[in-house]
């Protein structure tokens, strides 16, 4: 910007600011990860030496994360929830993309804004609103007929639906962006060569969309895995990992096992995020 | 030709179905249900009355609306700070960094985006608590004698929130600034503008969609955040979402909880709407692009 007047000094100051910013960005993550290797019962200084106990130890008090049944069950439920949310979001997101890119109907622009709305509704609100609706339906049904629909009570189904309600917006936006760049001439060529509509979809259009669908799936998976605000109100007995970690964190006596989990999650999501970026970058020139 | 049009009709309806199911069942109806519940008052078991009683009791209880006001002002502060801190970083990535380091810096910015709020707050706790890293280092260096508790203050909550949301400010800013032609800045200088004028008259107007989009998402995430204020601010952080949780889960007073929910939603919607109106943008030109 005003780097022009005395370029060297201004630029050095600017670079220092950027460096400081990245230190700020990295500090808590480094702290959360590093203490996983501290051979102490508390995730704090002084450094007591290097250990892998917080990952692999099978005995109390240093129960490692891979032997901690509650953490492992949380990991399992998070995985199940994230897989469902991601698959559902990619499916509905792809439908939305075709709906908004390929079709013309009255009120299309207004509905496109409606599609984006869930992103600007606070996650807590999405959670309680769904909880209220599901419980109201379940209660009135029980009073009227005596039938108990357990999936309308807090539990895995509601968590999936609650997360899906806004993650599908993210998935739709990613897939819409790719479908907009599609060259219609490619479909027309295939049709002229005698292919049926279904065949064109399966062999031309969907393969073109594949990178965006994979990226949307990965992003959806990660967002779901990390979600806490919406999940908090909808969770039943099958608590996902974030809820279990939160419960331990608010108790004072948290051990470095939480750091171990954090490190594994950071590495896992880092790898997945990288894959999603690489998949999207590897696109045919268009 | 007739069958061709029927096919298009059919596919339109097939594609509209999942969209409609999603919006109606998971977004619209739940919000209406919440509004409905907030207008209901329990006067005896299974006896309800409808009216604005919950809102009246909200207005009559200073603790409640003070919390909302506090959440609002702190969210605006966090949004402003995120913009002021994030803008130079975004500008650096988009315009000053070399071609190769640009991609790397952008990736570095994105990495914490994929780390859960929970882990980030946990990291801050480890750094800032009384037995934490910063306090230990200060003691070790001899600057202070006893441990210092940095947690449970408003400043810590603001820092933690800025940290949590700043990436959502930087990413849209980078993508807007990226499209700006360097010649525009050159022209500004050639016409006699100084650094400040160029920033104010050329760069900021150009980046406006990114600024609006970043501010909306940042504000919304802050006002609706739960983890960071609770974990860094402690139980007495008086954050509005904590009140909602309290009413729903601890006191089991769903009517009051729904009232709070409606108020939070109304409040964030109004701020987002004002932001869009003031800048002449719409949701599809801002949030959808980031």
UniProtKB/TrEMBL annotation, chain A:
Signal sequence residues: none
Membrane association type: Multi-pass membrane protein
InterPro entries on file: Bact_Polyamine_Transport, MetI-like, MetI-like_sf
Residue ranges annotated for the ABC transmembrane type-1 domain, each copy included: 75-276
Homology family: Belongs to the binding-protein-dependent transport system permease family. CysTW subfamily.
Transmembrane domains' residue ranges: 75-99, 111-135, 155-179, 200-225, 257-279
Organism: Breoghania corrubedonensis
SUPFAM superfamilies: MetI-like (SSF161098)
One Pfam family in the UniProt entry: BPD_transp_1
Keywords: Cell membrane, Membrane, Transmembrane, Transmembrane helix, Transport
Keyword Signal recorded: no
Record localization: Cell membrane
Main localization category: membrane
Protein name: Spermidine/putrescine transport system permease protein
Source organism superkingdom: Bacteria
Biological process terms in GO annotation: transmembrane transport
PANTHER family from the UniProt entry: PUTRESCINE TRANSPORT SYSTEM PERMEASE PROTEIN POTI (PTHR43848)
The keyword Magnesium belongs to this UniProt entry's keyword annotation: no
Cellular compartments per GO CC: plasma membrane
TrEMBL record, chain B:
A GO cellular-component term linked to this record: plasma membrane
Domain ABC transmembrane type-1: 68-275
Entry keyword annotation includes Membrane: yes
Keywords, sorted A to Z: Cell membrane, Membrane, Transmembrane, Transmembrane helix, Transport
Location, primary (coarse class): membrane
Database matches in PROSITE patterns: ABC_TM1
Pfam entry (one): BPD_transp_1
InterPro entries, per the entry: MetI-like, MetI-like_sf
Membrane-topology annotation of the record: Multi-pass membrane protein
One GO process term, biological-process aspect: transmembrane transport
Cellular localization per UniProt: Cell membrane
Segment forming the signal sequence: none
Transmembrane segments: 12-37, 72-93, 105-127, 150-174, 210-232, 252-276
Family: Belongs to the binding-protein-dependent transport system permease family. CysTW subfamily.
Name of this chain's protein: Spermidine/putrescine transport system permease protein
The organism of origin for this protein: Breoghania corrubedonensis
């Amino acid at each position: 910007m005003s780097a022009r007047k005395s370029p060297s000094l201004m630029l050095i100051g600017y670079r220092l600011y950027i460096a400081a910013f990245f230190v700020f960005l990295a500090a808590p993550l480094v702290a959360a990860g590093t203490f996983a290797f501290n051979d102490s019962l508390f995730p704090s200084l002084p450094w007591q030496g290097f250990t892998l106990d917080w990952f692999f130890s099978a005995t109390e008090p240093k129960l490692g994360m891979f032997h901690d049944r509650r953490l492992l069950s949380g990991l399992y439920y998070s995985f199940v929830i994230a897989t469902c949310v991601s698959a559902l979001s990619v499916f509905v997101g792809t439908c939305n993309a075709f709906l908004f890119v390929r079709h013309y109907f009255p009120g299309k622009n207004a509905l496109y804004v409606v599609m984006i709305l869930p992103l600007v509704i606070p996650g807590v609100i999405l959670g309680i609103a769904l909880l209220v609706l599901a419980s109201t339906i379940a209660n009135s049904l029980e009073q009227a007929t005596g039938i108990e629909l357990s999936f309308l009570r807090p539990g895995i189904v509601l968590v999936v639906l609650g997360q899906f309600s806004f993650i599908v917006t993210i998935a739709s936006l990613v897939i819409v962006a790719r479908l907009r760049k599609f060259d219609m001439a490619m479909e027309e060529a295939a049709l002229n060569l005698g292919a049926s509509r279904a065949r064109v979809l399966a062999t031309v259009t969907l393969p073109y969309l594949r990178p965006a669908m994979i990226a949307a799936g990965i992003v959806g998976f990660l967002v779901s895995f990390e979600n806490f605000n919406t999940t908090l109100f909808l969770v039943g007995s099958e608590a996902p990992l974030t809820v279990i970690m939160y419960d331990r964190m608010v108790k004072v006596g948290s051990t470095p096992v939480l750091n171990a989990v954090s490190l594994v999650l950071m590495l896992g999501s880092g790898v997945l995020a990288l894959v999603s970026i690489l998949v999207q970058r590897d696109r045919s020139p268009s | 030709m007739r069958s061709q049009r029927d096919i298009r009709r059919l596919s339109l309806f097939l594609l509209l179905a999942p969209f409609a199911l999603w919006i109606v069942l998971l977004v619209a109806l739940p919000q209406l249900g919440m509004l409905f519940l907030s207008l209901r008052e329990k006067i005896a078991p299974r006896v309800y009355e409808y009216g604005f009683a919950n809102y009246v009791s909200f207005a009559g209880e200073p603790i409640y609306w003070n919390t909302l006001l506090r959440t609002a002002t702190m969210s605006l502060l966090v949004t402003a700070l995120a913009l002021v801190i994030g803008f130079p970083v975004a500008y650096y990535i988009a315009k000053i960094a070399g071609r190769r380091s640009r991609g790397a810096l952008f990736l570095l910015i994105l990495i914490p985006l994929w780390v859960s709020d929970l882990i980030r707050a946990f990291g801050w706790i480890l750094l800032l608590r009384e037995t934490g890293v910063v306090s230990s280092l200060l003691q070790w260096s001899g600057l202070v004698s006893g441990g210092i508790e940095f947690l449970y203050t408003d400043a810590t909550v603001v820092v933690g929130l800025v940290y949590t949301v700043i990436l959502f400010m930087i990413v849209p800013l980078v993508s807007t600034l990226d499209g700006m032609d360097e010649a525009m800045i050159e022209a500004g200088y050639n016409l006699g503008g100084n650094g400040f004028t160029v920033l104010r008259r050329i760069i900021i107007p150009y980046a406006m969609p990114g600024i609006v989009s970043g501010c909306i998402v940042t504000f919304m995430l802050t006002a609706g955040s739960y983890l960071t204020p609770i974990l860094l601010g402690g139980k007495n952080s008086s954050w509005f979402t904590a009140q909602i949780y309290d009413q729903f889960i601890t006191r089991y007073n769903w009517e009051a909880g729904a009232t709070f929910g409606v108020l939070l939603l109304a409040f964030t919607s109004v701020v987002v709407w004002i932001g869009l109106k003031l800048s002449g943008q719409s949701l599809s030109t801002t949030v959808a692009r980031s």
